[in-house]
User: What shape does this take?
Amino acid sequence: MATAVEISRQDMNTFLAAQGFQEINIPGTKERVYSKFVTKTVCLRVYTSIVGESSRDTGEDAIRTVLVTKVNDVVKIIGGDKRVHRVEGWRNNLQNRLDRWQEQLGPACPKCQSPTIRRRSRKGPFWGCCQYPNCNSVQPISEPTRQPPVVQSRQSQADEAWRDRMREKAAFATLERKQEAKAYFDEMRAELEANGIYDGDDEPLQKLALVGDRPPSEW
Ligand SMILES: [Zn+2]
Assistant: This one.
């Protein structure tokens, strides 16, 4: 299990202030909360789990990111509440969460201009008005169209895989490797000659020697 790390008020403040967040006061909420506008009507909030100068106890220690909007002076949570655990690397994890609010927020509602958020039905995802059930306008989410897969024959797939492997190996073909390959080539030719099956065609041997049959990690 990952060990919880202490996050000081100062750590969090430095991290969030650099991204334009400001601490806000929410009556009745003990933990420190930061907020910034991401659109004209939507704020991204971070519930930091920090009370006073340091983190809360384990169990209440997750940091949460929440999208909120104000509707008739009432703050409404419209999405998010993704938890970021107070572990080593929390800055990266929190950053990822903060960077992903766009995925939740859709275009303005065409009926009432309120923010819309990502919802899911049996028919798939859609942008739903945050005023639901007062406004039940929905908009389809246009997913990027998938390209039909290129149909390849088994042979061409195998060829392509082989070429990829060769390219990968060629990238590792350092001078040292080439010298090693030369020695390998000489050795193979000597072996073919010794067995009386050397036909004078060096090219396949050179290729084989240069590429070898070992993964790059073993070179
Ligand atoms: Zn609406």
